[in-house]
What we know:
single chain, 310 residues, mainly beta, nine-stranded antiparallel beta sheet, six-stranded antiparallel beta sheet, 2 helices, 29 strands
Amino acid sequence: MSDPAAEEFEINLGGARAVIGNVGASLLDYQVDGHQYAHSRHVQYPSCPVPSAGKVMVPWPNRVAGGKWMYRDEPQQLKITEPDRGNAIHGLVGDQHWKLVDRSRSEVSLEISIDAQPGWPVPLHTTVSYQVGGWGLRVTHGVRNIGDRPVPFGVGAHPYLLPGPANLGDCDLKLTASKVLPYDPETMLPTGAIRHVGSTEHHNFRRGKMVCEALTNIDLDNTFGRCRAGKDGVVRHSLTWGRRGVELWTDPAFRWVHAYMWLPDDPPGLGVAIEPMTCPPNALNSGVDLITLQPGKSWHASWGIRPLIN
């Protein structure tokens, strides 16, 4: 059933074009010179939607075990939004209608407030802006504590990337992360201590690994940590074929990345989700890399997508 309140906003500059949806503030499409680098519906298969594509994940990315966590010794119970596994997944705003704040030819900004509610005791206000230019696509997140108590949170995004004119299966996936989280395949939640990627050959993407080769050994649905910035202070992950492909860059605030290969039966492999996250799965319980905002305080961080065309 179509959503009568759903809207889409196109921004463009030169040969760059992006489409943003108000539901989940989602990145629905990003193209440069007719080549697709991010998507929610592959141009060759428009009837095949991609799960969670492009959505903003606030106030936590990934999963919360059983939807349960503690806030100042007060038990919290979030709505279970992944019933098959019994988890709360991808935050509170992914299926909500965000409000348009500002729009120009090359930039659009959206906002939404998260009210205090069962499972989430402190209200937040969050924003996201998308901007296209000759340098690529830039996404900036903002979060402000509008309550009267400190609040922990995390931020993530769920873009599905394509390597433009290159063939996805022939591309090398490179993740500049030195750690990988072991997980329970039944719940998709972390189990045990984080491991060095060198301890499991199949999860070491630091130097790049061909997508089709990697998928013969693992079902790619993993969280990686210790994402290392370069000398310029920027973290970079990529899908490349020779010197072509696509790069996802982030501020150092995004210390984690979740990589997921979507493999519907037909058509095969339409993209790789490279999800920048400020904290790992179940962080509301582990406390790992949660951000805490005092009342009235704000936080901002950015990530983006850059076509590699030389």
